[in-house]
Design a protein that fits this description.
Blueprint (H helix, E strand, L loop, with lengths): L1 E8 L5 H17 L4 E9 L4 E8 L2 H8 L2 H8 L10 E6 L7
Antiparallel strand pairs: 1-3, 1-4, 2-3
Length: 99
């Protein structure tokens, strides 16, 4: 399993709008792709910093979504909310546990 981890610094006061975009556009986009497993968005209301962790069945599934032309369009909607460019990294999931 692979994780795409994206860290963002939003412009002051734009966290709620950012979450709306995740709910309305970004999460549904990921759900339409084979191999999508899970999404976790965390953040700090006080600093408008956030992080999204998207789990994928495989690196190929992640790459297929990342190269979908709709990916650029959807994430382009987030750009006006950003105070700085997002930082993206991918990792192999080494351990996952549930209660």
């Amino acid at each position: 399993m692979y994780a795409e981890v994206t860290s963002v610094q939003l412009r002051r006061g734009h966290t709620e709008r950012g979450l709306e975009l995740w709910r309305e556009a970004i999460a549904p986009f990921f759900k339409r792709h084979a191999g999508f497993r899970e999404l976790l968005v965390v953040g700090d209301w006080g600093t408008d910093r956030g992080m999204a962790i998207v789990l994928w069945e495989s690196q190929e599934a992640f790459q297929a979504a990342a190269h979908d032309p709709e990916h650029r369009t959807i994430f382009g909607r987030v750009a006006p909310l950003l105070a700085e460019p997002p930082q993206r990294e991918t990792f192999e999931v080494l351990l996952q546990e549930w209660p």
